[in-house]
Design a protein that fits this description.
373 residues; alpha/beta; seven-stranded mixed sheet; two-stranded parallel ribbon; 40% helix; globular
C-alpha cells in the first residue's frame, strides 16, 4: 500500500510540474483554508484570470481539515452560496459572439458552397491555394477554429466544434446541400458534421477528407502529450511546409517555460520565412494551444456514415515505401469501418504541401471530377 501511494504521489507531482493552466474567460471561485498561513492568498491564480474574475472565499480549517468534519459544513455552505450566485448572473462570454464562417470566395450564385475545415492549429488561409485552383465559380467558406486568436477558448471535442460549425452554417445557409472538406484533424470534424446532417435529414453533396487518420475504435483512447511533446509534433509539420529542418531539439526546450519555447519556435519560423520578421512570438500562443488540444483529443463516431466519402492520402517521405504502404492500408481499413462507401484518392506532396502549389492542382482536379462536378 505504501509503495502504491508513493508511486501515485510521484505521478501527481510530475503532472503538477508539467501542467500549465490556460486562461479562461469564466469567473473562478477559489475556496481557501482560513487557518492556513500563506504568502499569496490567491495561490498564483492571478496568472490564469484577471483579478476581477477571481472570487476569493475563505472557509474554516486547514488545507486538509477543510474537507473533513466539522469544517466541511462551512465549505459546503460557501460552495452552495457561490453556485446560487453564479446561476443568477449570466457571464458575458466573448465565445458567444464567435462565428467560424470566413468567406474565401463568393463564387457564382446557385452553386453549392464548399465548406473547408483546417487541421490542428491550422488557419482557413491554408485553403487559399485550393480556392484559386478550383476556379472563380465555386463559393468557398472556411470554418475558422475557435481559439486561434489566443483569446477565445478552443473547442475541447470534435463534436463540440462540429455542432458549432453547423449552427453557424444553418444561420446563414438555410437551404441546399453542403460540400464538406476537412484536412487532417479537420477531417474528423467534417465527418462528424456529415454524421449530424445525416441524422437530422440534412443533405451532404460531398464529403472529402484530406490525409486524416481514422477515428478511434475505442472511445476510451487517451492521448497525453506534454507541452514540449506537442510543440515538437507541430515542429514536424512546419518542417514539411518549409522543406527543411527548423533545428529545434526537444532537449533544448524541456527546461524552458512556454514563453521561451514560443520564442525559439518563432525565431526559427522567421528564419525559414514562415513568419514575417515584424511578427511577435505571442502570435503563436493560440496556434500552439489549439494544436495541443487537438492532438490530445480522441474521437469515436456514434454512427456509421452511409454516404460516399473521398479520402485523399499522400506519401509520408519519412517512411520507407513498404512501411508507408502499410500505414495507408491501416488508415483506409480504419475509415471503412465508419464509412463503407469510401473511395481513396492519391494526392501529391506531403501532409502539408498537398494544399500548396503545384500539388494543390492535383487535388483541385480530383475534386472537380469526383466531388464538385
Amino acid at each position: 500500500d505504501i509503495r502504491q501511494f508513493l508511486a501515485r504521489r510521484r505521478t501527481y507531482m510530475q503532472a503538477n510540474a508539467d501542467y500549465r493552466a490556460q486562461p479562461i474567460p469564466l469567473p473562478i471561485h477559489l475556496f481557501t483554508a482560513r487557518d492556513e498561513a500563506v504568502d499569496d492568498p490567491l495561490r498564483g491564480w492571478e496568472a490564469v484570470a484577471p483579478a476581477e474574475r477571481l472570487r476569493l472565499i475563505p472557509v474554516e480549517g486547514t488545507h486538509l481539515s477543510m474537507m473533513e468534519e466539522p469544517q466541511i459544513a462551512s465549505l459546503g455552505a460557501a460552495l452552495s452560496a457561490a453556485i446560487r450566485q453564479a446561476g443568477e448572473q449570466r457571464a458575458e462570454l466573448p465565445e458567444r459572439a464567435y462565428s467560424p464562417l470566413v468567406t474565401l470566395q463568393t463564387g457564382r450564385t446557385g452553386l453549392t458552397p464548399l465548406f473547408c475545415v483546417p487541421g490542428a492549429g491550422g488557419n482557413v488561409v491554408s485553403f487559399n491555394a485550393l480556392v484559386s485552383a478550383l476556379g472563380e465559380a465555386r463559393p468557398v467558406v472556411g470554418l475558422q477554429p475557435r481559439g486561434l486568436d489566443g483569446q477565445l477558448v478552443p473547442h475541447s471535442t470534435v463534436t463540440a466544434a462540429a455542432q458549432a460549425y453547423l449552427l453557424a452554417i444553418g444561420e446563414r445557409y438555410r437551404e441546399g446541400p453542403l460540400h464538406l472538406l476537412g484536412h487532417s484533424f479537420g477531417g474528423w470534424v467534417a465527418f462528424e458534421m456529415a454524421l449530424r446532417l445525416q441524422a437530422t435529414g440534412g443533405r451532404v453533396a460531398s464529403l472529402t477528407i484530406l490525409d486524416s487518420r481514422a477515428p478511434d475504435e475505442d472511445e476510451a483512447v487517451v492521448r497525453e502529450y506534454s507541452d514540449t511533446e506537442a510543440l515538437m509534433r507541430l515542429v514536424t509539420l512546419y518542417e514539411q511546409v518549409a522543406g527543411r529542418s527548423l533545428e529545434i531539439d526537444a532537449g533544448e526546450l524541456e527546461s524552458l517555460e512556454s514563453e521561451a519555447q514560443r520564442a525559439i519556435l518563432h525565431e526559427r519560423l522567421v528564419r525559414v520565412g514562415l513568419m514575417p520578421p515584424a511578427s511577435k512570438a505571442q502570435a503563436l500562443h493560440g496556434t500552439l494551444r489549439h494544436y495541443a488540444g487537438c492532438v490530445r483529443t480522441s474521437y469515436r463516431p456514434e454512427a456509421i456514415y452511409s454516404g460516399p466519402v473521398r479520402l485523399v492520402l499522400v506519401r509520408d517521405d519519412r517512411l520507407a515505401e513498404e512501411a508507408d504502404r502499410q500505414r495507408r492500408e491501416t488508415i483506409v481499413a480504419g475509415w471503412k469501418r465508419w464509412a463503407p462507401e469510401l473511395t481513396v484518392l492519391r494526392g501529391g506532396g506531403n501532409h502539408m504541401t498537398l494544399l500548396k502549389p503545384p500539388h494543390v492542382q492535383i487535388l483541385a482536379d480530383a475534386l472537380l471530377k469526383e466531388a464538385l462536378g
